[in-house]
Structures are given as structure tokens and as C-alpha cells.
């Protein structure tokens, strides 16, 4: 946390944009401690909100289990909610039977928004050694391949909760972003595409603006959840 407070946050504070910090931990106590510390320095350091990662498949710890169980999701989110008044975004995993029950649990526990999806479970095999290429055997699959799954789950959750949904998964161009918005996302996150094209976010913002003008749409909220059955 020392380097983060001394270097990262002061650097980010220079920009006129909200800073949302993604946090994770090995225990509920660690999540609560992190949320508490960041809440205390939020005004000074310009922290606008927290994204609670309870669904990362790239670790062997408990983070994955919390996001796959509605009761555990409620437990950890409510514990964090009691610790801080910062806006809480809860990041959900697609590796569940019914994401709607997890989304409802997070909302009831005090989440202000939900972001989905985190990565899908996958693995890669080294054919020469006949061993997994990943240290944990399995890991998270991201990028364009996951977009259809992400869209489907965003649409399901949008139908289920009243809090905002943030869409994630395989967004590499403006058309992808618009699909998520039409399916119910009020915002999007872009991850993998930044490694290929660092300017992709600006391109997508400009593309959305162009789409709105060309289609005579005055407010982007008109598009949110506008998908017809």
C-alpha cells in the first residue's frame, strides 16, 4: 500500500476523472481493512469508489468461492458496506449456475452497482511436458472470445436488479460497447483491448458520440436496456 499511496494515487489525482480502486483479499478481514483504509484517505487521495473483486479465477484463495455463493457474497459485501460510505461496485463471476441469485445477494447487501463479467475458467496444456502452462493449472480467459457470454449475463442481471450494471468482456470496438449498453449496461470496462490498442477507449467514446448523433439520440440512457425481445 505504501507505493500505491506515495506514487500511484498522487499520479492519478492529476487527472480530471473519478478513480475507482479494485480491491481483493485472502480473508473478509483483509477486504474490510482495505476498504476502511481507502475510505479514510478517499478525500485526500481522490478515491471515488471501490470495485470489490470477489470473483478472480487466477488465485487459489477464497476470492473465487465468495463470488460463487449467494450467502458468502452477501456476507462479504455487507461487511464492507458497514466499513465505508464509498460507492461499492461488486464484480461478479460468470462461473456460476445462476448469476441472478448472486447479483440479488450483492444488491441486498448494499452494492451500489455490479460489474460483470470477470473471466471465464480455462486452461492451456504444454504438449511437450504434458503439464498445464499456468501455475494454478486453470486461469481466467478474457478477450473477444468471452463477449457473447458476457452480453447474455449482463442482460440477465439487468432484468433482475435495480442498481446499475457495468458491462465487461471482449469489448474492442464501438459496436461491442453499444451492444452491452443496449443489453442493459450503464457503463463499460475495457481491459484486454488496451494491451493491443492503448487508444481504444478514446476511439470507443468518439464512436458512441458519432452513433448517437447519426441516430438522433439525445441521451445515451435511451439506449440502456433497449434490446427488443
Fill in the keyword field for this structure.
single chain; six-stranded parallel sheet; globular; 229 residues; 9 helices; TIM Barrel
Strand order, sheet with most strands: 1-2-3-4-9-10
Residues in helices, as a percent range: 40-55%
Approximate shape: globular
Instruction: Tell me the CATH architecture.
Output: Alpha-Beta Barrel
- What's the pLDDT, averaged over the residues? 90
Counting DSSP E segments of at least 2 residues, the number of strands comes to: 10
Beta-sheet strand percentage?
15-25%
Structural class: alpha/beta
Alpha-carbon distance between the two ends = 47 Å
Number of domains: 1
Number of helices: 9
List the uncertain runs: 58-63
CATH superfamily: Aldolase class I
Largest sheet: 6 strands, parallel
Radius of gyration: 18 Å
In short, what is this structure?
The protein is built from 9 helices and 10 strands. It has 229 residues and is α/β, with parallel strands linked by helices. It has a single domain, classed as TIM Barrel, CATH 3.20.20.
Protein described:
The protein is of the alpha/beta class and 229 residues long. It has a single domain (2-222), classed as TIM Barrel (Alpha-Beta Barrel), CATH 3.20.20.70. Helix content is 44%, strand content 16%. It is built from nine helices and ten strands. The strands form three sheets. A six-stranded parallel β-sheet has the order 1-2-3-4-9-10. Helix 2 (28-45) runs parallel beside helix 4 and helix 7 crosses helix 9 (200-214). It is globular, with a radius of gyration of 18 Å.
